[in-house]
Amino acid sequence: MTEVYLRRLSRWQAEQQRAAVADVHVTAYRGAAGAEYRDRQGFLDRFEQHVQRLGFDMMVADAGGLVGCAYGFRVERTGEWWSDFRGELPTDIEELTASGRTFLLAELMVLPAHRRHGVATLMGERLLARLETDLVVAAVDLERPGDGKDGEDSARGGRPANAAQETVRSWGWSKLGLLAPHSPSAVREVWIRRPLR
Asked: What's the pLDDT tens digit per position in 80-118?
């Protein structure tokens, strides 16, 4: 495999690279569950909003062109991000959000040819290493049975294997609960990590 270099992008650099990032996004999610909601223009619209958010930070993987991207931003203190959370949100999570010390890992994507080589893990580690937060959260779309490429269910819960779930689980994150569906076919799990100090 070609050597991959990681680099952090400023907000301005991220905006300049948006077309290349959108190309990675479309290719990375092609054929995935919920892909109809990950079209290029939809991503560009979200990215334009995300890059303006407080605490925006971005890491890219480059191998003669972008092959991966990870970015996020601080969750607003109002707690609006949690409005779709199913059930009772733990008090400590509410307090960490209100204190402004919660970071949302909004996107983590790697081109198929560069997966299973540690690129996502390296980007995630580098992105999160310098954060001054007490909580990192991510919402992972769940695949429904039959949505996987091979249609086979995993041993866990009867659902197809989901690369995003496997990634955050392997990083030692904990599942907190579910968010209400943002589409009729998509339910999202919330995973959390409390940074080591």
From this structure: 999 989 889 999 999 999 999 999 999 999 888 778 888
Picking from 6, 173, 22, 31, the residue whose alpha carbon sits closest to that of residue 103 is: 173
The b-or-e profile of 91-124 (16+ CB within 10 A means b, else e) is eebeebbeeebbbbbbbbbbbeebbeeebbebbb
The distance of Cα 184 from the centroid of its chain, to the nearest Å, equals 20
How large is the greatest C-alpha to C-alpha distance in the chain, in angstroms? 46
Whether the full predicted model's pTM is greater than 0.85, yes or no, is: no
Residue 111 host element (H or E): none
Euclidean distance between CA atoms 62 and 47, whole angstroms: 19
Query: Alpha-carbon Rg of the chain, whole angstroms?
Result: 16
Q: What is the pLDDT of residues 108-125, one digit of tens each?
A: 998 887 788 888 889 888
